[in-house]
Amino acid sequence: MYTPGEDLLSCLRRRGFEKVHVDYVFCESQIEAFKKRFGHTDYETYLGLSHRRLELDIQRNYIDGRQLFKRENVPESTEFDEYGIGHSKGSEFAFHMTRMHHPLRGAGIEEIMNYPYPTIDESKLEEFNKKVSALHEKGLASFGFMQMTVWEASWYLRSMEELMMDMMIESESAGILLDKITDFACAKARAYATAGVDILSLGDDIGTQTSLMLDIELWGKWLRPRLKKVIQAAKDIKPDILIFYHSCGYITPFIDKLIETGVEILNPIQPECMEFNEIHDRFGDRVSFWGTLGTQQLLPYGTKEEVKRVTLERLEKCGNKGGIVVGPTHLVEPEVPWENLMAIIEAAKEFERERN
User: Fold this and answer.
1) Range of the domain at 345
2) Are the C-beta atoms of 78 and 91 separated by less than 8 Å?
3) Mean pLDDT of all residues in 323-330
């Protein structure tokens, strides 16, 4: 009999499953609401998740984030991430949405080359490896989180406008920046694979709500080879590691090339932008799916019955071979009612009963 983690991996390889697998990521206010309801914050165990997310410790290689901004005075409240990218909120009601400040906007080649890019904190690797082993001992799958893989980290640093212009005019700046970020991503991929992580979560948003974010040929020239390099870095060490790829928005024209590049799980298949049944009909024999339940309309504004119906439709479409982890397409925002979250669990249990 499989452990929950083993069953999840079998499902993602479309080899059948014993239980329906679900996923949730709560925002802070949802975690607080859960704590008030149950007296603790371990919603992952309560909701029966078969995996846990893990993230490597990253070394920041700068002292003062403000000093990275040579051409912009960032707001006083700005916070700086491991890349030195600035984030400021318009108000407390912005939740996780921030205005982004780009330290390499307007930078020349020398500044791009010498920027203090982050590195892995080597001193924490042994501790991280133990966390992965501990999950496996509990029968859970390990999910290594390294989204903002190449494209997003690069444009967050440079700004989307400037990086796209660099790519369009084939500027040396684009290659230098993308290679720096790719080298870091490859180092992380190797570390995750060495630790024995089961699922490697990559991701760069390449779609908008209604169209592609960038031209397919531009993506194919500048980003696809670098994504392939990151995937290969992990596969060289752990060939059976499953490659998960996240992109919000409309990405249908990219899916075939993403699969050819090595992507094995697609997230989230945003229903406001793509029709799940159509995507499954075209690609469901070559890739698995994660998410698919909309956080813009269905979960916050749908009824419990509607959520349950759509969840069952997803599971029935994928059938007994699996190939889906069902859940919200993004962070569960404050306005999503608890009843709608539980409707997903109810649908999962009903589908399991009907199979037995």
Assistant:
1) 4-65+121-355
2) no
3) 98
| CA–CA distance, 55 with 69 (Å, rounded to integer) | 27
Domain count for the chain, please give it: 1
DSSP string, 193-244: HHHT-SEEEEE---B-SSSBSS-HHHHHHHTHHHHHHHHHHHHHH-TT-EEE
C-alpha span between 337 and 70 (Å, rounded): 45
DSSP symbol at 94: G
Asked whether residue 109 is assigned to any structural domain, the reply reads no
pLDDT at 168 over 90: yes
Q: State whether residue 96 is helix, strand or coil.
A: coil
The string of DSSP letters for 282-339 reads HHTTT-EEEEEE-TTTHHHHS-HHHHHHHHHHHHHHHGGG--EEEEESS-B-TTS-HH
Query: pLDDT-based confidence at 187, cuts 50/70/90?
Result: very high
Asked whether residue 151 is domain-assigned, the answer is yes
Decide if 60 is inside a domain.
yes
Residue 295 maps to a domain: yes
Tell whether the model's pLDDT for residue 198 goes beyond 90.
Answer: yes
CA pair distance 52, 143, nearest whole angstrom: 6
Q: What is the pLDDT of residues 64-117, one digit of tens each?
A: 999 999 999 999 999 999 999 999 988 877 767 889 999 999 999 999 999 999
Closest CA to 104 of 56, 68, 149, 131: 68
| CA count, 13 A, side-chain hemisphere, 134 | 9
Residues 6+ apart with CB under 8 A from 163: 154, 155, 174, 177
CATH number assigned to the domain comprising residue 226: 3.20.20.210
